[in-house]
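Collaboration report, partner site 2.

Our partner group contributed sequences for two proteins of shared interest, and the home lab folded both. The records are reproduced in the order in which they were received, starting with the first partner submission.
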Amino acid sequence: MANDNVEKSLEESVKLLNALGTGYHDWKSTIARNFHVDEFGKEITPGEAYYCIESGGSANSYRRLKHSSMSKFLEVMFDSSPGLLQLAEELKVEREEKLKSEMEAAARTVAEAKSRRELKE
């Protein structure tokens, strides 16, 4: 159970990290199909979960971090910079509000299109 809490905390911290980015290339958790080495030289074995993000134009340009590496990276980054943590929290809220607004607008558009189609019939 404690491990589940650590993973949830890590996921929340990664969301904060992603809030600092553009939203187009976020860190995502995935499962390794092949052997990799992360940015800090830690081995990632097939079947192991790790984080990756696109970094460059080619299809194989990814940065990879084991969950343990990501956890340490985020701990150092956010613990040493309270202002950065606050900014990330604010940007995460803004990103979530923007997404909610866009989803509501899309739902209204679909409802309006459905209504117009029903009127034609």
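Second partner submission, folded after the first:
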Amino acid sequence: MPSVGDDRDRITRETNRLRRQAALLADLIAATEEQVASNYEEIAQTRPPPAAERLRANAAKAREFAAKERIQAAQYRQSCSDGDQASPATGKRP
């Protein structure tokens, strides 16, 4: 019969797996938003000034969103690595 410690370890491993997966997805979203921003900027070069300004503004928003996603990915990774590290006092995982 599994012990409470075994269950805790299993839950920690699954939680960390999900956090790593969320970090990967956030990175992919950030990369996609960067590509969207690049596309907007490229199109803006061929448009009249009012349209070009709107496209550049949209590109800036996409880059801001990409930056937020990268921060989120880093937070997921950090929370995952925090959970993987052993306690210095006991040598055991939290």
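Feedback sent to the partner group on the second submission included the following. The chain has two helices and no strands. Residues 3 and 55 are 58 Å apart (CA to CA).
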